[in-house]
Design goal:
15 strands; elongated; 2 domains; 4-stranded mixed β-sheet; about 290 residues; about 35% strand; alpha/beta; single chain
Length: about 290
């Protein structure tokens, strides 16, 4: 039975002509798969299927997606992120929002990285002491903008303690001001969408949340925050992020929002932080699938 498989030129260049031909003839392609984009079942014998190659430094993983969801493409992914996705790909997703993940970050970041095995870095690559950022996934509604009245995928970032600048021993929290210096905007009303911030992005791979990326000095991107393990997200969150191609990120100083067990309580806490001038945010494009 013929296989309805699309292998793009860039995927073919990575895997070679022989392997591409084996996929197209069905020698190495599965009949059924879970779409790496929407996670719904797919059948290569019944519907057009795109090959998606996730490429790390030493590891590559070939996945499949409905062609109606995304085209065949190569998605660069950090090696540790790809290995984490491989380890967790068969785990059942969580379904109760909001969801939170925590990862180390510098104690004084304009750019809090979360790669402890490489050493946390701030602007210019200076090593800094580790702190912790909490990242919570949820859905928000805005009443203006092109997605007015439509649920949007959001990340709420809050450190567990005060974040100071390098050399500042006052104990004052500079987390939000430093993000403003990076291009984030002050959010006084969650009903109004925040500014768009090019260069930053939210990395998803195989339907899971991996990292928040920021521009790197000299070009490319580095992880501003990275999950210890790929974070499972709800179907509604993933659908909103992938359909809109972007994620709304909010951030606030420690203690401004807290860990909330329900999205209505999370929204109420965000509204309170905004009223007190403590909330910053930006719309970040989605990287990966």
């Amino acid at each position: 039975m013929p296989r309805l498989i699309d292998v793009s030129d860039e995927v073919r260049a990575e895997i070679g002509d022989d392997e591409a031909d084996r996929l197209l003839t069905g020698v190495t392609a599965p009949d059924r798969y879970d779409c790496t984009h929407c996670r719904a079942p797919g059948d290569v014998t019944q519907e057009s299927t795109a090959t998606v190659l996730f490429v790390g430094e030493e590891t590559a993983v070939l996945a499949f997606a409905h062609s109606r969801c995304i085209p065949s493409q190569v998605v660069p992914v950090a090696e540790e992120q790809l290995l984490g996705a491989v380890r967790s790909i068969s785990e059942a997703p969580q379904t109760t929002p909001p969801q939170a993940a925590y990862a180390p970050a510098p104690s004084a970041p304009a750019a809090p990285a979360a790669l402890p095995q490489r050493g946390p870095q701030g602007p210019g690559g200076q090593p800094q002491q580790a702190a912790v950022l909490g990242v919570t996934c949820g859905l928000v509604l805005s009443q203006t903008g092109r997605y007015a009245g439509i649920p949007r995928a959001a990340l709420v970032v809050e450190p567990t303690g005060a974040v100071g600048r390098p050399g500042d021993e006052s104990g004052q929290d500079h987390f939000a001001p430093m993000l403003v210096e990076q291009g984030f905007g002050q959010v006084f009303d969650v009903e109004q969408p925040p500014v768009e911030l090019p260069g930053w992005s939210v990395l998803m791979a195989m339907g899971q949340l991996h990292a928040i990326l920021q521009p790197a000095k000299g070009g490319g991107t580095i992880a501003w925050w990275q999950a210890h393990q790929p974070l499972q997200v709800t179907d509604a969150w993933r659908s909103a992020a992938t359909q809109q191609g972007e994620v709304v990120m909010y951030a606030a100083p420690a203690g401004s929002i807290g860990r909330q067990p329900r999205e209505d309580l999370l929204r109420s806490a965000m509204d309170g932080a905004a009223r007190h001038g403590l909330l910053v945010g930006a719309v970040l494009p989605l990287a990966g699938t």
